[in-house]
Design goal:
mainly alpha, Arc Repressor Mutant, subunit A, two-stranded antiparallel ribbon, 7 helices, globular, MarR/SlyA-like, Winged helix-turn-helix transcriptional regulator
Length: 145
């Protein structure tokens, strides 16, 4: 026979669980940025991925996966629609023929340039609602990531 889980414990977890609060906030932020990015035809996740590819040298899939805290197969799956749209180009790594490097195309760079001011406006609006402008929240999240 299992021990009953008191409702008071449920309420305590609801009110104090950092994971639950981070997940809820992440979903709300994603929806908000998805809506903001709609005019340029990408999602907030695609914006983060395109931004992560904006480097002097095309990164490996592994480097992008590490930056975004995703597994390589998820990054690869998320790159496919961007590749079909002509926003990124996936090539063999000249230093390791088993690996792949991803580069933004001219079209991808142009889209990122159009999306960045949208991100900046939305981000500033969100930070304006936070005590300390988001520095404390960002610092705490960085400690956990």
């Amino acid at each position: 026979m299992s021990t009953p889980h008191p409702f008071a414990t449920t309420l305590h977890i609801r009110d104090h669980c950092l994971c639950l609060h981070a997940q809820r906030a992440a979903r709300r932020l994603s929806r908000r940025f998805d809506e903001a990015m709609r005019p340029v035809g990408i999602t907030s996740g695609q914006f983060s991925l395109l931004n992560g590819l904006n480097r002097p040298e095309p990164p490996t899939i592994g480097a992008v996966a590490s930056l975004l805290a995703m597994d390589r197969s998820t990054v690869t799956a998320n790159l496919k629609p961007l590749e079909r749209q002509g926003l990124v180009q996936i090539e063999l790594d000249p230093e390791d023929r088993r690996g792949r490097r991803i580069a933004l195309t001219e079209q991808g760079l142009a889209l990122l340039a159009a999306a960045t001011p949208i991100w900046a406006r939305e981000h500033a609006a969100i930070e304006a609602t936070l005590n300390g402008g988001g520095d404390a929240l960002r610092g705490g999240l960085n400690l956990l990531s």
